[in-house]
Specification:
This protein is an alpha+beta fold. It is 30% helix and 18% strand. It has one domain: Ribosomal protein L5 (50s Ribosomal Protein L5, Chain: A). The protein has four helices and five strands. A five-stranded antiparallel beta sheet has the order 2-3-1-5-4. The longest helix is centred in the N-terminal third of the chain and has 17 residues, at 4-20. The N and C termini lie far apart (43 Å).
């Protein structure tokens, strides 16, 4: 089976050019990067949580996460300046395409009661953000090994300024979207 990057260049680009009526190959929507975020605000309650979340995100993405620090103190959330509040991984290149293929074909079908992604999850720039409630949908994380169930956020940055074109690209990658129901 060809990699998703090869498939994008050989099959998906010509199909999108025809489908979206684009003359220039460089104007076709393209995936630029995938950002994976985990909030570790629970780190104050459980000192081991940050380390376990870092190991989980490293196993899922194959890349070491960067620790994000609070920029300012917020007393309502009991956060002080320079507290560790999140972990981030930015994927590009072949690793990004491999991760997208894993999310579309392995992880999303393992979600409970999954009926497809909502097309309203796109922002105005055409980027898709998906919030996942459990990290155990990825095959690298076993339920026995997962002490704490935590969520994560995936943001797929696409160089299309049209959410509909971005959705067509992700549908070609294998992402299932909810069918729009017409009333009347």
């Amino acid at each position: 089976m060809p990699s998703l990057k090869e498939q994008y260049n050989t099959e998906i680009v010509p199909a999108l050019m025809k489908e979206l009526d684009i003359a220039n190959r460089l104007a076709v929507p393209k995936l630029k990067k995938v950002v994976v975020n985990i909030g570790i605000g629970q780190n104050k309650l459980n000192a081991n949580f940050g380390k376990l979340a870092a190991e989980n995100i490293m196993a899922i993405t194959g890349q070491k996460p960067v620790t994000r620090l609070a920029r300012k103190a917020i007393s309502g959330f009991k956060v002080r300046e320079n507290d560790e509040v999140g972990l981030t991984v930015t994927l590009r290149g072949q690793r990004m395409y491999d991760f997208v293929q894993k999310v579309a074909h392995v992880a999303l079908p393992r979600l409970r009661d999954f009926r497809g992604l909502d097309s309203r999850s796109f922002d105005q720039a055409g980027n898709l953000t998906i919030g996942l409630k459990e990290q155990i949908i990825f095959p690298e994380i076993t339920t026995e090994k997962a002490e704490n169930i935590h969520g994560l956020e995936l943001t797929m940055v696409i160089n299309s300024y049209n959410p509909q074109a971005s959705q067509k690209l992700l549908e070609k990658f294998g992402f299932p979207f909810k069918k729009e129901q017409k009333n009347g």
